[in-house]
Structure formats: structure tokens, C-alpha cells
Amino acid sequence: MAVMVTGGTGQVGAFLSKSLLRSGQEVLVFDAKPNLENIREIRDRVTLVEGDVTNLPSIVETIRKYRVETVYHLAAVVVLDSRENPLKSANVNCMGTVNVFEAGKTTGLKRIIYMSSSAVYGRPEAYGREVVSEDDVPRCPIDPYSATKVMNEVFGQHYFSKFGVKTLGLRLAATWGPGRYVGFTGAFNDMVRRLAIGESASLPPDFAFPGAQLRWLYVEDLGDLLVHAGTVGEGSIKRRLYNVGTRGPFTPVDFVSTLKEVLPDARLSVEWRDRPTESALSVAGPSGLDIDCGRFYEELGYHEKATLKSSIERAIAFERARLH
Questions:
Q1: Quick one: pLDDT band at residue 282, thresholds 50, 70, 90?
Q2: The pTM of the whole model exceeds 0.90
Q3: N or C: which end of the chain has fewer CB within 10 A?
């Protein structure tokens, strides 16, 4: 039996595929526009299918042909691209996700792990407190990406309650690290990359609010966490939707301080802001709104393995190794 990763050559998909291989699983990568550079280390160890999640027959055919048991659905149009191309965002993020759920219903998949986002929570003033949990009804901002994620959660719950499809949604705080250097968090990753290889860089304004509460997972650690989500026993799952991030938050000040500890000679320019940017205000974490991720650890028995410092050290080592 195989495990299928949609969007499997993207930043998260590539690292998840590596984690799945380490756990001994047979991996099928399903991607509309494969980025072979991201999977070059494992290309000969995975099955690569060039396919689009907006094509339901293609998904069903692939699942049946390769005897797929579990699907990790990561294919998506990200935040800034969704704002520029809302029609594409709706097609890929909404219809693509419903297609995966429908394929699960048709083929009897064991489990579908799909990615939601902390972006569904919207602006901090909508809640009147500093921390939100899965119990809070999202006050979705006027933002295409956030709206598609809320819709996916509704359909995920429906396919579970109505048809018994074992969906498991993860509201990801965010991920950082190698593999994506454009877009909202991509600018942050590019900063780390530049510093790692000895170039100068600036902290992006979207992440320069000292009061931001970041539970961002280093991308390699997210891969390991997703493997756990796909293999944990069904009896441990108490809800069909979990917040996912680091066990506790860190601030941009913490990140910069730790980065300078690891790279004392880093040429990093920082201009702290007294409030979040308009873009950051719509995203929990950078806005200052914290999301409680404790239930994933407590109910699903996951144990955090990394520290902020060890994650930064691995990111630097990865970026330097890419030069050779």
C-alpha cells in the first residue's frame, strides 16, 4: 500500500516525502507542476505522477492504480497568489480539496490529512483575547486564501459525518525553512538563506512586530509531525480538526536573538514596528494573536523533538550544503 502526497514537490511536500521514506512507507508524489529540484535527493525512491487535483478522475485513477491507502493533501495556491488570482485559488484550494474528499469516498481511503491554516482566525480584535483554540469559530478575514481554508474545513467535517470519510484537518500556524523563497513566509525563508550563505539581509516588515506570537514549525519537523498525524490510531483522534504548530510560541525578537547566537557575524538589518503590517494583521501569529496547539500534542501523543536553536542550525546547514 502507498501513501500519496498532493503538491508533493512543494516545500512541505518534499520534506514530508523524506519523512515518510524514513518511516518505511511507499511514497507517491502527485503534483501538477513538479519541482524536481526539491526532490532530487529522493527522486529515485518515490513514484512521481504529474496530476492535477482539479481533475477528479485522475485522482481516483491514481489512488486505485497504486493502491493508495492514505492521502496527504498539500496542493494549494498560497496566500499572496490567492489574492492576485482568486479564481485559481477557488479552483485549486476549494474544488481540488473537495475532489480529494470525493476520491476518498469513492475509493475507501484509510485517512485524508489535509492542510488548513491559522489564517482562518483573522484579526485579533475579533476575539477580545490573546489566545484562540479549535473551539473558536473563525472570524475569517476578507481574504481569498483564508476563505478557501474555512470552506475546506466545512467540507472535511461534512464528508466525515455524512459519508464516514476519515478526514483530519490541520490548522497550520505556518512553516519556515528551505524550499520556498517567494510569497508571504517565503520572504522570511529568503532572509535566512541569505544570511546562511554570508549575504546581508533584512527582516521582512510582515514579521517585524515584536509582539507577534509565532508557532512556526521548521519544515523538516512539520514533515515528521505529519507522518504522526497519518499513522496515529483512529481511537486517539478526538476531533477532526487540530491546530498545529510548536508547543509554545516564540517572538521575532526570540528568533533574531537565537539567529545571532548561531551566526554572530550575520549581517541582519532589523527595523522593529510598533504594530503589525496590514497583511500580517490578517494572519494569526504575526498579528499577535496566539493559537493554542496543545490538543495535538496531548490527544495524539506527539512529542516535540526540536528547539528553535536546533532548527535554525539545521536550516543554515541545509542552505550551505546546497551551494556544493
A1: confident
A2: yes
A3: C
